[in-house]
Design brief:
The protein is of the alpha+beta class. The chain has a single domain (2-90), classed as Alpha-Beta Plaits (2-Layer Sandwich), CATH 3.30.70. It has 3 helices and 4 strands. It has a 4-stranded antiparallel sheet, covered by helices on one side. It is globular, with a radius of gyration of 15 Å.
Length: 91
C-alpha cells in the first residue's frame, strides 16, 4: 500500500525546528527526518507531513515567514519491511 507524503527541506536545522513547532501548534501531523539521499546529497533536516495538509502548511509558512528550501511529493510505501525484517531475510 502506498500513500503520498510531502517532504519539505530547509537551509538550516533552525528553520526545520521552527516549522515543526508551528505545525504542531496547529495540530498538523509532522515529523522531522534526515534529508533522504535521493532528494539531496547534503545532510540536514527535513519535515514529512501529509500532502492533504499542503494548503494549510503553505499558508503557515507564509504567515510565519519560515524559510524553506524545497518541497517534494512522493509515493511512500506504508507496509514496507523495517530494518530488522530486511536483516532477518538475508539470513
Amino acid at each position: 500500500m502506498e500513500k503520498t507524503v510531502c517532504i519539505m527541506t530547509f537551509h538550516a536545522t533552525y528553520h526545520a525546528l521552527g516549522f515543526e513547532k508551528v505545525l504542531k501548534e496547529q495540530n498538523i501531523d509532522v515529523k522531522l527526518i534526515p534529508v533522504p539521499r535521493d532528494l539531496s546529497s547534503s545532510c540536514g533536516s527535513a519535515a514529512r507531513f501529509r500532502c492533504q495538509d499542503l494548503s494549510s502548511v503553505k499558508a503557515l509558512v507564509d504567515e510565519y515567514c519560515i524559510e524553506v528550501d524545497e518541497l517534494y511529493e512522493r509515493e511512500e510505501e506504508t507496509d514496507r519491511p523495517g530494518l530488522l525484517d530486511r536483516i532477518l531475510r538475508k539470513k
